Every structure is written in C-alpha cells, then in structure tokens.
Predict the 3D structure of the following.
Amino acid sequence: MDTMPIVTLNSMTISHQDGPLLTDVNFSLSKGEFVYLIGKSGAGKTSLLRTLYADHSIDMGSAVVCDYDLTSIKKRDIPMLRRKMGIVFQSARLLPDRNVYDNLFFVLRATGWRKRKEIDDRIMETLEQVGVADKAKSYPHRLSEGERQRVGIARALINNPDLLLADEPTGNLDPLSSSEIMTLLTDINKEKGVSMIISSHDFMMIDKFPARVACCENGTLVCPE
C-alpha cells in the first residue's frame, strides 16, 4: 500500500452554531486505506465528512485532502477537489425525473465530459461494476433501496475518484442489502485502490468487514493506529 497520505488533519478544530464541535483532530488516511468513522448522533461525523469535501469551514489547524490545503483553498478550486473524490449519502439523492443512465450522464457532462461514446462507455462500465447495468433505463422510483444505493455509489465512482466518502451508506437498508453494499465497497477498495472513509452505526457490518476505526467522541476524533 502506498503510505503517502491522501488525507492529513493536524490539530484541526471545526464548530457548529453552538460552539466547537470537534477540536484537536489529528488524523491521516493513506492512499488505498479503508477507515470506518463511528460515533453517536450529533458527535460530528457528518460535519467532519463535509469538512473533507470543503462544505464546512475549519476554525483552527490544518487539513490537506487530495493535495488541496482546505484552509486556503479558493472557491473556484473546490469543484476540482470534488472531482478527485466521490460522495455517497445515506439516501441516494438521485434526480427523480431522470433514469439511471441520465443521472450519471448529468454528472459526466457537468464535470467536462463531451464525447458521447466515451460517456456511454464510462456509464455502462460503472453500472456494471456496481451490479446494476440492467437498470440503466429505470427511473429511481422503480428501484429498490439497495439498487438506488448502488446507483449512488456508481455516481460517486463515475469520475474515477482517489477518495470516496460515504455517510451512513447502509443506514436505510435491510441487513442483506447492507451486506451487499459493504461487499461492493470493500471490493472496490481492494481491487481499485480507492481510499475510503465510511461513516457507520452498523457494528455488525464493521465486525463482518473489519478495518481501522476512528471515533468521534468527547469533542474530538480518537484514531487508534
């Protein structure tokens, strides 16, 4: 595994409207590494993930993600940062008025892809990778929760990211679908080398797919090596 960190946080503090949320956060994620982010509701997991994709400001300390310094990043550079990462939400957040293919087509066109054959090939390759190539023409309301989440993962992977951030990706799923999604994510991590931070409350899945765990607790991030 390449030991060059893709995420480095040093003495970082982030706040919410009521004051500091996480203080003195020190954390690094190596390229190709998989880490779970756990903690009670309201402990700061989602805010920490939002910080990593430059949607939540940093009060103190430093943060470097995908070679971008988040304390000095220009607003115009944030889209370039986000093209280096994929983001998976608890609910897939697909565009309901577009089928699966068009949901992914929208992302590729928005990120600079122009050649139709290259777009077609990339969409079908990615849908095949996550196991829903047969759903390309289906609309979100015709899909199961597990299928929608697979499409959400496809959207996160469509631009070949270096880093994938997932906020409770199995939170809305039954145990079988949760296991299938975690199998998919761990396979992508191992086979493609995509670095991952997965926020989760699902300790059964963490036991089944073990990896390093970082915990938001007592106003900071506890990161055993």
Remarks:
- The radius of gyration is 17 Å.
- Residues 12 and 25 are 5 Å apart (CA to CA).
- The helical segments are 45-52, 78-83, 100-110, 116-129, 145-157, 175-192, 203-208.
